[in-house]
Structures are given as C-alpha cells and as structure tokens.
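User: Predict the full complex structure for these chains.
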Amino acid sequence: MRLALREMHRRPGRFAIATVILTLIAILLMFLGGLLDGLVASSTGAFRAQRADLVVYSGNSRNSLERSRIEPDVRHQVESVPGVTRVGGLGSVQLGGRIPGRGARDLVPTVLFGYELAPRGLPSTPPGAGTVYADDSLRAKNVVVGTTIHLGPARSAVTIVGFVSDTRYSGQGTLWGSLETWRQVLDANRPDARVGPGVVQALVVQGVSLGRAGLPEQIDRATDGATTTLTITEAINALPGVSQQRTVFNQIIGVTVVIAIVVVALFFALLTVERTALYGVLKAIGASSRTLFVGVVLQAVVVALIASLIGVVASLVLDALIPAGTIPFVATPARLLSSAVVLVVAAVVGCTFSLRRVLRVDPAAAIGGAP
Amino acid sequence: MFLALREMSRARVRFGLLIGAVGLLVFLILTQQAIEGGLVTGFVGALRQQSAPVLVYSVDGQRTLQGSVIDPGLEAKIRGVSGVAGAGWIGQSTFTVRVDGGAESDAALIGYEHSGLGDPSGLSAGRRPVGPTEAVGSAADFTVGSRVRVVTSGPSGATGPVFTVVGLVKDAQIQVTPTLFVPWAGYEAAVKAANPDATTVLPSVIAVRPTSGVSDIELVRRINAASPDADALTRSQAASDTPGVAQVQQSFQLIFLLYGLVVPLITGLFFLIITFQKAAALTLLRAIGARSGALVRSLLIQVLLVIGAGIVIGVALFAPLTLIRLGAITIRLNPGAILFWSVGLLVLGVASALVAARRVLAVDPLEATTGGGGL
Amino acid sequence: MTTLAESAGTFDHALEMRGITKVYRVADDEVVALDHVDLIVASDEIVALVGPSGSGKTTLCSIAGGLLSPTDGSVVVAGREISGYSGHQLTDFRRESVGFVFQTVNLIPFLTARENLLVVDEIGRRLGRVARDRADQLLAELGLTDRAANLPAQLSGGQKQRVAIGRALMNDPSLVLFDEPTSALDSSLGDQVVRLIREEMKARGTAAIIVTHDDRITHYADRTVHIEDGRIAE
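Assistant: Here is the predicted structure of the three-chain assembly.
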C-alpha cells in the first residue's frame, strides 16, 4: 500500500495523464448534474416550497396548473373528506413585469401566485391586496423591498414587501400574494383566462388517510372524478419538462460514467504494461498478486479523488462565474459528492481490467533480466 | 501501413478500449446534437412552419405565443403601418384532448384567421382545413382522419369541439406539445369551451405580410416604431428569440465543447504514452534506416484508423435511436451533423497526435548503440 | 536486390576511414572520442574491434555505419563517401547499404521473427515477393524456420540474436556492424553466435566489424584492431 502511494509521489508524471482526463470527465459529470439540478430547481421551487401533502387539480387538466379549475363546490367536497385537515387554494398567472429603471421593452418574466396555505418562507396570512413577496432570483433584476412592479398589459401594480428563496416556477421568478391579488391581476390582464369568484386553479391539502385507501383516491372518489389528486412529490415530477429532463440527462450521465470506466481501464492498462518488470521483481521478492492489485486499485482511487477535487473546485468556480439567468447551473453538495463517488467507483471498476495482466506476471522472468 | 496495422493487431486490448471510448463519445455527441435539434424544433417548429413572414407580439407577451395578447387598439395601430399588405389573427392555447376516444392527452391549438397568415406553409400529407372543425396536425403526433375532442375542465364528459385532422405538417410542434392548426372560429370555440368564464377571445399575435418592395426586416422596424407595445419579429427571429431556446442552445454548446475536448485529449495522450513506451523500437527502426517521416505517417495512420473506427461505432450506436421517440422529441439522423463531427474529430485527433509526432521526430538513431533508446 | 548487383566488383574495400576525428563539446571542455583514426576493411573481411569501455570503439562503429558524422576525416563505404552526408542521406544510406546488430534492443517487440526481417523491406524498396523469399531463406539458414511466427518475447536470447543477424542481412549490405553481439549471452552461446556470424559473413562475402571487449572471440575474426583512448594501437 505504501509502495503504491510512494510510486505516485515519486513519479507523478505517470499518473498525471490519467488524472487530467478523469478531471475532465469529473467536470463533465458535475456540470451535467448541476445543469439538471438547476433546471429542475428552477421549475419546481414553487411546489417544493408548499407545506402540503397533496395537490388537487381538476380531473381533465392533465396535471397542468394553468389548465386546471377548481370550482367552490368541488372544493367543499374535498374539504369534507375525513382526514383532510387543511385546504388552501392556489392560482397562478404568467406575466411580464415592468420594473422601474428598465426600458419599455425590457420586461422581466414572472409568475404571480395567489396562495392561502402559506408555503415555507411566506407569512401565514398572505400579504394585503396589491402587495407581494418576491423570489430571491428577482433581486438580480434590481428588485428591493418597496419596488412596485407593473404586471402585464394592464400594468397591474404590485409592491414588494419581502423576499422568499427557492420558489421559482417554470424557470421564472415568482411573486406571492393573496388569492384576491391574483384574481384582480388575472382578470385585468387575461380576459380569456378569467375565473369566477371562489374559483382557483388547484388546491393544496394537508391531511392523512383515515381509511384503507390512500387520501388521494379518497378525495377523487369524493368528487366523483372531477379532481385528480397527487402527492406533492408526484405533482413536482409532473411539472412540465421535469421528468423528461431527468430522463435525458440521467441517460447522458450514465453513458459518461461508462466512458469513465473505459478510460480508466485504458490508461491503467497502459500503466501496467510499463510496470511489468517492476511487478516481476516484487513478486520475486515475495509480494502476492493481491497486494499488487490492491496497490493498483488504490492508485486508481487516488487519481479519481484528485480528479473529483479539481472537478469540485471547477464546478464552484463555474457556479460563481455563470451570470444568473443564463445557463441554469447550480452546484449542490449532494450532486458534487455523488459525482465524486460515482467517479471513484468507475475508477475501481476500470482498473479491474488490469487484474489479469498483474496476475500473469511471472516472477521467474524477472530474475532473467533480459530486455 | 504495415507497421501501423501490425502494432494495432498485437495490442488489441488497448486499441480496442481506445476505439470503444471514442465510439461512446461520438455516440453521446451525436445523441446530444439530435436532442438539441429535436428540442428546439419541438419548442418552436410550428413557428418555423407557419406561413406568416412577420409576427407581431405584444411586448408583454415576452415573445411567447401563449403569453401575448393583442387588444383592438394595438391591432389598429399595426394595421395602420404603411407596408402592411395583409394582416390576420393568430391565437395559441394548450388544451386537454382525447384523440379518437383514447386517453386524455395534451394538444396545442394554433388558430389562424386567414390562410397564408399563420397556417402551415407546406403540408406533408392531406389538405388544408375548409371549415372550423377541421385541422392540420403535427405529423409526428396525428394521422389524417383522427378526431380530436377538446375536453373541458368541468365534470368529465362535458363536450368541447371536435376537430378532424385533414392534413399533416412535419416538425411543427410548439412547446414540445402535439400541435393542431385550426381556423379561427374553431380555435375560439375551443377556448370558450375550456374556460366558460372567458368573455372575449383576443388574438395572441397579429400575422402580417409586407407589401412588395418592403422587406420583412423593414416592416418589423416600422411596426416597432409605430407603438411601444408592439413587438414585431420576422418568422426566424420569432423562433430563435422564444424564451428558453437560447438557453437550451447555450447549455448544449457548452456540453458539446466539453465532450468535444475529451476526444482529442484521450487520443493525444494515448498516442503520447505508447510512443514513449515503444521508444526503443522507434530508435531501432531509425537506426536501421527508417525515415522519420515514415514513422510519423505510421502514427497518423493509427490515429485516423482509431478515430474513424470510433466514428463508425458511434454512428452505429446512434442510428437505432432515430427509430424511437424520446418522449415527445423526434430524433433525426442529420447527415450534416455527422459529417461535421467526423471531420472535426479527425482533424482534432490528428492535431492531438502532433505532440506524439514530435516525440517520434526527436528519436535519435544513435541511441541504439548506447543501450536501447528507452527513457 | 539491386545493391548486390551494384556493389559486386565495383570496389575493393568495404570501408575506408582516413583521418577520422570525433570531438564532443561538453560545456567548456572538449572530449576527443576519436583522434585521427585510419581503418581499412576489405570487401569480405571480418575485423574485430577490441578495446576497453570508453575507448571510442562504439563511436568508430557508429561513424562507419552512418549513425554519426565525424568532426573531420573521410568515410567511404562501398565506394560511397558519406562523411558529408545530411541526416536524411545517412538514413537512406543505412537502409540500403549497412546492417546493424546492436547490443541490447534489436527486435521490434510486436513483430514476429519473420516480420522483424520483413520490416527492412517495409521501410525500404518494397520488393514484396522477393523480400519474403529472402526472409524465409535467411530464417532457414539461421535455423529459425520453426520460430518464424514467434514474437521476441517467446524467443531465447540466442534465437533473438540470430533473428537480429537475419535482419541485418536482409538488405544485402556491404558492411555489417556488430556491437558487442555476445555480451548478453553466456560463453558457449556467445561462441555459437559468433561462429554463426562468421559462417554467414563468409558465405556471402560480406565485410563485418565486430565490436567487442571480449578477447576470446577474436579468433573468429580475420584481423583484430585494438583501440584505446580514441586511437588505433598497432
């Protein structure tokens, strides 16, 4: 073990090549992962922030918030299901916001939410009419407490009274106000999407199932199919683009990991060839194949760890350098750590390709010494 | 050639692994290229396929069809701009539908007032709609003769309008959703059925055709000058400026760059290592009279063979993907992209081997006498 | 091969070195490796070049074989004056006119015995069929026919040396240079190899210079030349 590490210490050049390539692969893995995380986070923040167990959409809205409509009578039905403790309405409208100091055509895309049941970070009583909390991402647009944003063609005015973090929706910054505020803004700006009094787009529900069936089934049965109820996790995964992005990116990441394995196998095979004489001598003086191979694995792990470390640093630098709002990249500790672990495992798997060659080295040949 | 091939055939594992790595990388690059193309087409294909040369959004719409609304005042200003030969309404919304009585699915409806201003420029099958209950559908999602019923958000079973697909158009989705082009009356009926609280159905965008002698760009400029609420774009601008498209393209370009770098890095370093490892053999060959040019040529032949084989494998792995659909995205075999990457990777691969080539050229045949020329 | 036709009867000596001097400049010092050396080798003569290590024998051998250019003096091999040749010209010269058997690395590790002989044709004139026949003939003469498809790693020290000799003879050289051909072999094997060398050289009437520090094998040579401190000792 010490021998393996000492070799790396004395002859770093030998391992430099494998390290360089693995570093690039580590950066690739972390970048792809960070891109996926950023895309998903920017789409799902508003829902992840909800302090609820379930989301109720209308029956044929195909789990789309924009197309869903919950009438007051359906809401009553949901509220009366045993096990349901709290129900809140949710409404949204996507509009361009005009912020003072920006050009007439320079609109900021926002989504205004009206809520009843407060998501994390928001006050349990929604702000008064015409006032809203803004998602942190809007700070980059020079929004501060007290800024009045004019939404949509009707220039509906809403004033910022506070900020909340990680509540974006569909990649856009969000504004959070009361249902009343939402309805006013919606009616003024979207005549074709106007809703009647008491109508919301979806319901967020807290509760537990009191029967044998799950609470979602009970609710849908109680409304006679007028609703589709999902757990909050299911609702997040059903947000547009989320599951497709996950699938596509995870497949790309998967193939990249396979490439990492092949690359480690390749470069460690090259390394092993160079050291055949060394292994012969070691075996001649009594080292077992197992010892030698553990040394090789150790070296692969060290190379992968160094590559991961540089990858982490590069990802953090990239995170800092990328201007907010362009590429949706975010470097989370979970992703960086999991990428490093995956890379180390790939390195270990890759170097097992050299196992046969190490086993085959004949100690007797070493003593002959002929080139 | 002989030396190059002999060495490769005697070292199958290492060259095999290298070719495998290159092949997988080529596969990934081609797949990602196709996904990017498919995504962008899925987002804005309908905009590219529709017939209006100029589209006027409201500034508040932020260049999305669904977000834009044109009120009558703005419409009047647009029609009043000199150079406007014809104008028509276009509206877009997404609905829940049942196709031929099947399960519920999504469909984006694009309603157009006049043919030639918003309906598809060319069809891949069938004919154009005649009445308000006929539609042209995106070819990947519909077949001629399908009946598409708009499902309302009320109690299940409530009726919405039914459209019959009479024609198909390729690469014509919007928002990565199956898309139907319908005459305005049909679109209006669908919007009202889906949201009974709605009062008026206003157009999302005004489609405009310039008079002869006025270019599309010039008309765009004039319309934008006529009103600060108007956001006029040419057809191609409308597609490329749709929010999200630039982001997708930027992200993918960074990914391509990184993956593209990995290939020459791997080949370059591989050949450098094996050149060092066979230094003794190279020294011997030079000593017995092999020209250094011949040895470099042998190296480059190996590089070309490795990358060529990798490209073949990568394309072979990629080709079957074109037969399936990744969700709603169609993966298309793009010969142009394959050619571009093949040439690019071959050039990069040869460039990366230059470091090894320099090492080959630096071999001193005299070293053969001093004990092998190893390092 | 055409060199055979060319060389037959057109020169007396395989090698004529006159006034050969080789000086190396190391920092501020001058190292004189060879000092006005003369050496004539007849067209079918075997010369043993003997001297202690550092005597300049390898340098002399390198200059004779076109691996090195002298600082001063003239080198004529088979009627060709090579002392002024450029690197390119020396490469071509080595390929066409001389054969080498080195002390250590002699064979390409990823080529079989037969392929190691054919590599000469590969890097040179590409005579194809003629070359293949010649290679097979040489292998038979050297007793290696059943080892023709083996890689160097599968050959013994003595067999490897014989393959090297075969390769050195492939281009029908005017002069073959052997640099310590037996130093890696035990004395009986070394004896066999040098005897083989003599047989092959004499059978073809090819001149050879065998560099060695081992006095015992000199009786296989026609003449022994002693070299010490860069000078021929008579």
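Chain C is about 35% helix and 30% strand.
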